[in-house]
Amino acid sequence: MYGADVEQIAIQLNEDPQKLADFEARIARGEKIEPGDWMPAEYRRQLIRMISQHAHSEVVGMLPEGAWITKAPSLRRKLILLAKVQDEAGHGQYLYHAAETLGATREEMLDALLDGKAKYSSIFNYHTTTWADNGAIGWLVDGAAILNQTMLARCSYGPYSRAMVRICMEENFHRKQGQEMIILYSQGTPAQRAMVQDAITRWWWPTLMMFGPHDADSPNSGVLIRWGIKTRTNDELRQEFINQLVPDLQACGIVLPDPDLHYDEASKNWRTGPIDWDEFWAVLKGNGPANAERMAARRQAHADGQWVREAAAAYAAKSQIQ
Q1: Contact 185, 196 (CB under 8 A)
Q2: What is the DSSP letter of 288?
Q3: 88-97, 115-124, 210-219, 310-319 — which is least confidently predicted?
Q4: Handedness of CA 170, 119, 112, 155 (dihedral sign)
Q5: What are the start-end ranges of the H helices in 115-209?
Q6: Please, are residues 32 and 74 in contact by the beta-carbon 8 Å criterion?
Q7: Are the CB atoms for 259 and 169 separated by under 8 Å?
Q8: Residues 218-250: pLDDT tens digits?
């Protein structure tokens, strides 16, 4: 899973012109920037912000589906969901490690999340109300994440890029298990078909919002593309996702909740109606359906893990003495 990049960047480059030119020439040649290499302070700051936000999204993203592990309808589904939630925890670990190579500490990043100063993906502030929501998250949310993460696997910062290669492979499994669920239930009983239709109806628009604001309202994209952190814009990724999903979902007999949805023969693209950006910004500012619930769960988990952190610190101190 992943978090949309929505915070505005105030760039103040006060760097040695020759070093900056050499740095940008390396990126233009397709070279990876590694932790010990010179980099602009703004490049480092933006990467820490992006990677930590991504890590928080993976960790918080365990909550909507984790609640359904004990309610899975079969042992097979339970095992799949257990593996998927475990994967998301692992993704958070990879990403926190990647951010640490830039000088950020785990404590600083977690404190920012728990204090409400750091963001995570808006999509995880919606409730999962039926079992079919797990399928919708897999096919829609993880499918959207893969498009973004495949781009990030080619980003200019080595540790982030390499972390994304493995994450993309696991996310592809997540997408496929969700796709299988939606296809299966869309061919099932009337109750199953109604459950799937309801789930897609509720998750369609929040998933489109995951890609972030339209390019015209996304001041981040310019500098992130300039430095090879992003290689595609929010609207480009969103349009590819729409073009992939619309025909597949319609083939399942699912009606998308958009009366303006149509195929534009001239551009060969599916066009949607307007996205409700007021809802997006409200959720991002903490006023979504499950914002308070998600943060309360994370704060409780952090408090419950205090004894583990203390035990690990005591063991490390004892090992150094010996």
Answers
A1: yes
A2: S
A3: 210-219
A4: positive
A5: 132-136, 142-152, 158-186, 190-209
A6: no
A7: no
A8: 777 778 888 999 989 999 999 999 999 999 999
